[in-house]
Amino acid sequence: MTETSAAPPARIPGTEPHPDSALDGVDAWWRAANYLSAGQIYLRDNPLLRRPLEKSDVKARLLGHWGTTPGLNFIYAHLNRLICEQKRNVLFITGPGHGGPANVANAWLEGTYSEIYSHVGRDEEGLRTLFRQFSYPGGIPSHAAPETPGSIHEGGELGYSLAHAYGAVFDNPDLVAATVIGDGEAETGPLAASWHSNSFLDPAVDGAVLPILHLNGYKIANPTILSRMPEEQLLKLLEGYGYRPYVVTVEDPAAVRQAHEDFAAVLETCLAEITAIQEPYRTGEKTAMAPDVPGADAVEQHAPRWPMIVFRSPKGWTGPAVVDGLQVEGTWRAHQVPLSEIHDNPEHLAQLQEWLQSYRPEDLFGADGRLVEEVARLAPEGDLRMSATPYANGGRLLQDLHLPDYADHAVKIDHPGSERVSPMFNLGGYLREVIRKNPSNFRIFGPDETASNRLQAVYDVTDKAWQQRIDELDEHLARSGRVAEVLSEHLCEGWLEGYLLTGRHGVFNCYEAFVHIVDSMFNQHAKWLKVSRGLSWRQPVASLNYLLSSHVWQQDHNGFSHQDPGFIDHVVNKKAEVIRVYLPPDANTLLAVAGHILDSRDRVNVVVSGKQPAPVWLDPEQALLHVERGVGIWDFAGSEGAGPGARTEPDVVMACAGDVPTLETVAAAALLKEQLPELKIRVVNVVDLMALQDPKEHPNGLPDRDFDTLFTTGKPVIFAYHGYPWLIHRLTYRRTNHDNLHVRGYKEEGTTTTPFDMAMLNQIDRFQLAIDVLDRVASLRSTQASFRQYLQDERARARQYTRDEGQDPPYITGWNLQEAEQDTPG
């Protein structure tokens, strides 16, 4: 065992034996957890080995991951001892979540599992059920899934444990997130970035993360980088990240007592250091970061050096050492199922019997199968149990947000389009008040884009959290802040997920094109919500809110690389009851959508809005109604008549979803109304994209009767859409009038050019939309050839103007609905 530290720790590990017999209890707990873990992987009957194992006692399909599990059980047992002694709130985050047998085993030992799942009792029959259900049809997953008490981290996809941990402890001053990081997981990009999270942790108001880097040497089939790295280099790496690493190495797998002694001492030291770091900031003794290196310049302020543990133990520790003449324990062969031929190889069956009996289950479980009292009383009490902590069931802690009055921030207009306002800038004022009213349970996360996305009004009431040096020229940086910015979408997503799942609220704002970086993280969270919604014991949590701006139609200076609206397509693949997608057409509808999503639960809400000044089409009352409906007819933009009873069936429906497509649709309708006053045009705007879907597929879907009333059953529909056009077809393919639906959207045509040229490149511009109407209304195809030619010529003139002048024509940028006639060229 080795210990390294820049300053003397509270106790030097390994210098003296532990003074009491508590470690005997830790070892008993560890053996019991290992027995239950192996039993889950292998057994379907004979759970306590009352008789010699038979092939029929073993599952037909052997699934699970043994290799990381004994190390997880070891750490869990030691944490429990200190929880009992110190009464700390500890959240156990399992980075190698495929070690799910450990989480389930410990939850059963603590009694939490049987409290939640009464059919899995704390007796022999309960053990039989516990074993049989694992990785079994109709049972539970092999990973630390939502079904697992105490888990907020599935861990099937590696790389996110540390980010989740930091998100969990933000604004939770009494919480320690003990986070096991697998050495394979440590090779991932998100995890590598997550080490920087300590630069955002305020010791005065946040809890603490205790990273435990679990080095067992191998991934599925290869050695891991950090386990093979020379120890001096590894420690320098971790120290460079700003941590104070302590190393515990199991040199001899049989020297269990020494391993317990060493780990117990290091764990005590780390928790003592955490307390020592936090106390001065909480008592007011320290009010700003000060150097802890003698002689350092006082200007060189930096984050505290938090402790962490590097735990080296053999992969598959305590399992079969050798199988079929090949070394298993301590190698990649222990990763999943060490004995895989139970049904065909009698020697494997015998080895399984010997392995399970090595844990001495007769000393751990009584005649009725219950855990013996000497071991059972080692569990912490009530909510201090890591499997029962309310921090892992965040809905228990969730408090409603105090939301500002919508009317105080809505834009008043005289008529549609009379005001031009940046929707995101206006929203920034609203979010400023959300922060003011909710100073401890709401945060904004983003990759260095909060101001770029025009939300800078929030800095009137908060700063950006930052624990490293702050220079005089820096703006809006402080030790405490409600905005967390880091140039890693992975970290923003992981922090927010951890924050939400432990009972708080938040928003992730991002450039639309680059939110794709977290596609897979979104997948995992959406799946988590889908499953947890079906578990009565898991309380609803605040929704995951994506606020996407700097979108595809407003990336004229960044160009093609920043032009991608496809995140929406990715999102709508997930379970319908979890997903919502909003495309507010103006500032007031964005404001109404924001209030709605911040008040929602157990969902993923995606909101896409522009940040440049744009027309405000709906007054405050209309915007609220529009969001409530999700879709509606805009009488002011169409020409089919206004008011109840005055409407006849339109000749064409011009639909739109998204701010730029809406502007172009309204402008196209104005062109058509001027030239063809007899043409009956219906303009329909969609703000809730999922309203288009069949109600059998999505709870927000419009009933067929309502959809047909809006879009007709046989008239042409020209639909201008923010994203890839085929998504609209996919959402509406069951609708009566789908065959008459013609969608314009982004078709992967982009470059560094003007906004209107972008619209023309992808054929969602007003002239092309008007041409589409002429081409699809049968009575106009041969009668409006001259008008069609005029529209084509206008597209060409506008294109040439951008080439000649480097900007869009003034009659495009200055277009106003009320002045459409005189502003329209020609």
TrEMBL record:
Protein EC: 4.1.2.-
Cited InterPro entries: Phosphoketolase, THDP-binding, Transketo_C/PFOR_II, Xul5P/Fru6P_PKetolase, Xul5P/Fru6P_PKetolase_C, Xul5P/Fru6P_PKetolase_CS, Xul5P/Fru6P_PKetolase_N, Xul5P/Fru6P_PKetolase_ThDP_BS
Xylulose 5-phosphate/Fructose 6-phosphate phosphoketolase C-terminal domain boundaries: 611-816
Region (Disordered): 798-826
GO molecular-function terms, A-Z: aldehyde-lyase activity; magnesium ion binding
Signal sequence region: none
Example of a GO biological process term: carbohydrate metabolic process
Span of domain Xylulose 5-phosphate/Fructose 6-phosphate phosphoketolase N-terminal: 20-396
Keywords from the UniProt entry: Lyase, Thiamine pyrophosphate
Cofactor(s) for this UniProt protein: thiamine diphosphate
EC main group: lyase
Family membership: Belongs to the XFP family.
Protein name as it appears in the record: Probable phosphoketolase
Lineage, highest ranks first: Bacteria, Bacillati, Actinomycetota, Actinomycetes, Micrococcales
